[in-house]
Design goal:
The complex is a heterodimer of chains A (251) and B (46). Chain A is an all-alpha fold and 251 residues long. Chain A has helices at 5-12, 14-42, 61-88, 91-122, 132-153, 158-184, 204-250. The longest helix of chain A is centred in the last third of the chain and has 47 residues, at 204-250. Chain A is globular. Chain B has 46 residues and is mostly helical. Chain B contains 1 helix and no strands. The longest helix of chain B is centred in the middle third of the chain and has 44 residues, at 2-45. The chains are: A mainly alpha (251), B mainly alpha (46). At the A-B interface, helix 1, helix 2, helix 3, helix 4 and helix 7 of A face helix 1 of B.
Chain lengths: 251, 46
């Protein structure tokens, strides 16, 4: 049955409110992230120079750690989307794959770029190939990059979506390995900093700024996810309308 | 301090580039969607 263009407008009416919510959350998240940065640079005290090789460079962690947790959230979104696509060929599932891979790449790149900068200062080497967590995380970001590049370069269709969803499922398997590698196979990478803040010699102010960072980046992640989903929804509707226009021209 | 500056410039650059790309794509798709809907709507009225 041919749907009227009015029906599509009807469903599109819900979109501006989602988009506005996404924009508000993004603005709030960016403000919180900026506040985290300022508090981290100006208010948080230095760490014990006896315990840390680069006591000032630790301030990179105020964004590095929330970036890492946001990337894990993104890979969870990717996993849910991949399962939804495989089980029901759901359009919503495909949009979750798109959003999860975009945000996984954004936050993953932030971690992979900032980590070696801190590593150079603290450890004297930017990367340790013997550390399981660094390597699995690097692979995870490479998976996100593959998914984004594949989506943009491959022809749209069920075969492409199947391939991308299967790679997305594989990528998610690396998330628990990466998260738990800190505890199980710790080489150089520090433990879970919130849990081990006392052992690491972190002052309560540092913990407060880290928690502010987590909250801000969680809000930012939600804003980005809503805006990204709106965009993918609009792109999907645009393709449908273009196909309908093509059919009308042929007729 | 150099490490801090480089790392935070990279973070801000990444987020800035992502927000800019997202907003420009939203504006672009919005205008194309509106044009397609207007064309289809006028075709239906005819």
């Amino acid at each position: 049955m041919k749907t009227s263009i009015d029906d599509e407008w009807q469903s599109r009416r819900a979109m501006p409110s989602v988009r506005a919510t996404g924009a508000v959350l993004t603005a709030l998240g960016l403000t919180g992230a900026a506040a985290t940065l300022l508090f981290g640079l100006l208010w948080a005290p230095s760490v014990d120079p006896e315990a840390w090789n680069a006591p000032e460079a630790y301030r990179i962690l105020f964004w590095h750690v929330p970036f890492a947790w946001s990337s894990f959230l993104a890979f969870c979104v990717l996993f849910i989307g991949s399962v939804a696509w495989y089980s029901r060929r759901s359009e919503f599932g495909w949009r979750l794959i798109c959003t999860g891979s975009d945000l996984g790449l954004l936050f993953g790149l932030g971690v992979v770029i900032s980590g070696p900068i801190w590593g150079s200062a603290e450890w004297g080497v930017p990367w340790d190939w013997g550390d399981l967590r660094l390597n699995t995380y690097g692979l995870l970001t490479a998976v996100a990059m593959f998914l984004v590049l594949a989506r943009n370069s491959q022809p749209e269709g069920h075969d492409t979506r199947d391939t991308i969803a299967s790679v997305g499922l594989f990528g998610f398997a690396l998330v628990p390995i990466t998260a738990l590698a800190t505890t199980w196979y710790q080489e150089r990478h520090p433990g879970i900093i919130i849990v081990e803040s006392e052992e690491a010699g972190l002052a309560p102010e540092i913990l407060t700024v880290l928690l502010l960072g987590f909250a801000s980046f969680f809000i930012l992640f939600a804003g980005f996810a809503l805006l990204s989903d709106t965009l993918h929804q609009m792109e999907s509707r645009l393709s449908q309308l273009q196909r309908r226009l093509d059919k009308e021209v042929v007729r | 301090m150099t490490e801090l500056a480089v790392a935070y410039l990279a973070f801000i650059g990444l987020i800035g580039a992502y927000v800019y790309r997202l907003m420009s794509r939203l504006a672009d798709v919005d205008s194309r969607l509106e044009a397609a809907e207007n064309t289809l709507s006028s075709n239906e009225n005819e």
